[in-house]
Write a structure and sequence with these properties.
Distance between the termini: 32 Å
CATH class of the largest domain: Alpha Beta
Strand content: 25-35%
Number of strands: 27
Largest sheet: 8 strands, mixed
CATH superfamily of the largest domain: Zn peptidases
Radius of gyration: 28 Å
CATH topology of the largest domain: Aminopeptidase
Number of domains: 3
Helix content: 10-25%
Shape: elongated
Bound molecules: zinc ion
C-alpha cells in the first residue's frame, strides 16, 4: 500500500499527451479495436488514466483495467474507488461501449476534475475478452464460454459452414421439427402447434456435428458457462444452477476480478453492465427483498432510482426481472447477492436493452407479453420496425439454401446474434451518456475520510500535545451498508501514529482503531502526548487507513 502524498507518484508527462480518442458508435469492437481504444485513452491522459491488466483470459488475452483518477492528488488505492465492469456475457458487446464511454468522458469532461481528485475509477470494460471477441468477430452465439477442450459426440459446434465469414443459424425441413415458418413473416420461425401445417423445421446454430451417430439426438455446443453464476454467494453446482462452473471463481477471468476486488478495501461501489430488456437491476438475486437489511434496502432503492432518473429504465430487483406471469427468479452465484452480502456494497447492474427496446418495445411491454403468440407478435413488430430503418444496422440475413455435408439440404440465415441481443449502436450512444451521468451521481456519494483540526501545542517543558479530528465528510458511511458493518472486508478506520526522530511517545498507544465512521458528521477526536529532544524536525506522521473513505497521510512539524 502506498499513501496519498501531494508530491508523490505524479505523472505530469504532458509532453507525451496525445489527443483523446472519441468513441465511435459504428460497430461493436473486436479485440484489436478494443485494445487499441483503451491504449489510446491511457496514452492521451497519463496524468489521469493508467492501463494495466487484472489477469489473463483463458486464451491469453489481457483482461484490461483502466484506472482513472487525478494521480497528482494521490494513488488510486488511497482514494475511495468505484468499479465498473462490462461484457461478462460474451454477446453483450454494447456493455464494453458503455463502459468505454464513461472512461472517455471522465477524462474528457473538465468538470470532473474535482471528483477525480477525490475518487478513483477502476474500469474493466471487457471482463470476457475471449467471448466478446468471438461474438464481435463471428456473430456466433455464446453466453460466457463454451467448453471446446473436449469435443462431445453428437454435439453441434458453431462453424462457418458456408464460408461467408459469419455464424448464423440453420433451418432444415424435418418431419419432427419443432418450428414452422411464421405465416405472417416468412423470415421468422415460430413454434409448431398441434394444428400447424407443414413444412416443419428444426433450427440449429450454423455448424458441424462432432462424431455424429446420424440420429436426431443432437446437443448444441456442449457445456455452457454463465460467469454471472460463478460468484461466491450462494453458489450452487450444475444442474442446480445452470452455467455455474466447477466452483465459485473457477473461471480465471472471474477469479482475477474477485482477487482484484478483495485486495482493494477502498472500493465503495460497483456497477456491472449487461444487455437484457432495459432495467436498473438491484439485489436480491435469490429469495426475497426481506432478506436485505431494511435500511439498506431503502437506500439501495434510492440510489437505483438515480439510475432510473437518468436512463428512464425501470428499477427491478433481480428476482422480479422476468415475465409478469412467471414466478420470481432465483439466480445462485449471481453478482448482486455477492456484491451485497459478501462485499457489503450497493451494487447495481444496468441492462442496456436489446433490439426490442430500440424498436420501441420496452421492458414493461415485453414482460407483459403473456402468451407465446404475443411474444411472436412483438418479434414481428421488431422486423417491421427494422424494415423501415434507413442506414440500418445488420440484424437479419435472408435464408439461403445450402448443402450441408452432414445434414444435407438446409437454409443458412436468420438473426445476427449480437445485433439482436444488444440495443442499436445509435440508441447506445444516448444510453451511454445516461449511464455515465448515473455513475457520476453514485460516485459522488463516496465516503471521504479526512484529517481536520490538526494542532500541536506546548503542554509543559518539552512535552507536546498533538490533536486531530478524523472525520468522514462523504455521504455514505465507511461501512457503506449496514450489512458491511459486520464484514471483515470493509475495514474500520485505523489511525497510525509514527513519532519523528528524537520524539518519544508518552501516550499509552500510538495506533488506534477508530471503527467505522458515519457519513457527513461521523468523526472522532484523537490526541497524543510526546516528549521532544532538542530541535526535532517533525513531531510525527499520522496515517489514516480509511478503507472505503480513502487513506490520508500527514506530517506534523514541531511548534516553532
Ligand atoms: Zn448479461
Amino acid at each position: 500500500m502506498s499513501y496519498a502524498d501531494n508530491n508523490s507518484n505524479t505523472l505530469h508527462n504532458f509532453t507525451a499527451m496525445k489527443k483523446l480518442p472519441s468513441l465511435p458508435f459504428k460497430n461493436f469492437f473486436a479485440h484489436e479495436e478494443f485494445a487499441d481504444f483503451v491504449g489510446k485513452l491511457a496514452a492521451a491522459r497519463p496524468d489521469l488514466c493508467q492501463l494495466s491488466s487484472i489477469g489473463n483470459s483463458r486464451e491469453g488475452r489481457d483482461v484490461s483495467l483502466l484506472t482513472i483518477t487525478d494521480f497528482s492528488t494521490g494513488a488510486a488505492e488511497d482514494k475511495p474507488a468505484y468499479l465498473i465492469h462490462g461484457n461478462i456475457h460474451a454477446g453483450e458487446l454494447a456493455t464494453t461501449h458503455a463502459a468505454l464511454y464513461t472512461a472517455q468522458e471522465l477524462l474528457a469532461d473538465a468538470s470532473n476534475s474535482d471528483l477525480l481528485k477525490r475518487v478513483a475509477f477502476y474500469m474493466v470494460p471487457r471482463l470476457n475478452p475471449d467471448g466478446a471477441h468471438y461474438c464481435a468477430a463471428t456473430f456466433g452465439k455464446l453466453r460466457s464460454r463454451t467448453d471446446r477442450s473436449e469435443r462431445v459426440p453428437n454435439t453441434l459446434y458453431q462453424e462457418d459452414v458456408n464460408g461467408d465469414g459469419i455464424l448464423l443459424s440453420m433451418r432444415q425441413q424435418h418431419p419432427n421439427g419443432q418450428f414452422v415458418k411464421d405465416p405472417k413473416d416468412s423470415r421468422l420461425v415460430i413454434r409448431r402447434r398441434a394444428k400447424s401445417k407443414g413444412p416443419f423445421y428444426r433450427v440449429f446454430p450454423e455448424g458441424m456435428i462432432h462424431d455424429w451417430d446420424g440420429t436426431d439426438r443432437l446437443k448444441i455446443e456442449g457445456r455452457s458457462f454463465d460467469w454471472n453464476r460463478n460468484w461466491s454467494y450462494d453458489w450452487r453446482p450444475e444442474p442446480e444452477q445452470g452455467g455455474a462452473g466447477d466452483f465459485p471463481f473457477s473461471e480465471p477471468e472471474m477469479r482475477a476480478l474477485g482477487e482484484f476486488i478483495h485486495s482493494r478495501p477502498n472500493i465503495f461501489g460497483v456497477l456491472g453492465y449487461h444487455t437484457g430488456p432495459a432495467a436498473v437491476l438491484r439485489p436480491p438475486s435469490t429469495g426475497s427483498i426481506s432478506d436485505l437489511d431494511e435500511g439498506d434496502d431503502r437506500l439501495m432503492d434510492d440510489i437505483a432510482r438515480l439510475g432510473e432518473k437518468h436512463t428512464g429504465f425501470p428499477v427491478v430487483p433481480v428476482i422480479k426481472y422476468r415475465n409478469k406471469r412467471a414466478r420470481d427468479i432465483n439466480l445462485c452465484g449471481h453478482f448482486h447477492n455477492f456484491g451485497y452480502h459478501h462485499l457489503g456494497l450497493f451494487v447495481f447492474e444496468f441492462e442496456l436493452g436489446q433490439i426490442w427496446d430500440s424498436a420501441g418495445i420496452g421492458t414493461d411491454v415485453r414482460f407483459a407479453a403473456e402468451t407465446e403468440e404475443e411474444q411472436e407478435q412483438q418479434l414481428r413488430k421488431v422486423m417491421k420496425w427494422w424494415d423501415r430503418q434507413k442506414n440500418r444496422e445488420p440484424l437479419f440475413k435472408p435464408w439461403k439454401r445450402f448443402k450441408h455435408t452432414q445434414l444435407g439440404q438446409v437454409e443458412v440465415g436468420g438473426f445476427i446474434f449480437p445485433h439482436q441481443i444488444n440495443p442499436t449502436l445509435k440508441a447506445l450512444s444516448k444510453i451511454s451518456k445516461d449511464t455515465y451521468q448515473f455513475t457520476l451521481e453514485h460516485a459522488e456519494l463516496h465516503p471521504y475520510v479526512v484529517l481536520e483540526n490538526v494542532a500541536a501545542d506546548h503542554v509543559a517543558g518539552d512535552v507536546r500535545r498533538i490533536r486531530v479530528r478524523v472525520a468522514n465528510r462523504g455521504e455514505l458511511p465507511t461501512h457503506v451498508t449496514n450489512r458491511g458493518r459486520s464484514l471483515q472486508r470493509l475495514r474500520p478506520v485505523r489511525v497510525e501514529f509514527y513519532p519523528g526522530g528524537g520524539v518519544e511517545l508518552l501516550s499509552n498507544s500510538g495506533h488506534m482503531n477508530v471503527g467505522h465512521l458515519n457519513g457527513v458528521t461521523g468523526s472522532c477526536e484523537l490526541e497524543w502526548f510526546v516528549k521532544t529532544g532538542d530541535k526535532v524536525k517533525r513531531l510525527c506522521e499520522i496515517r489514516v487507513l480509511g478503507g472505503t473513505g480513502g487513506n490520508v497521510i500527514r506530517e506534523i512539524g514541531d511548534i516553532p
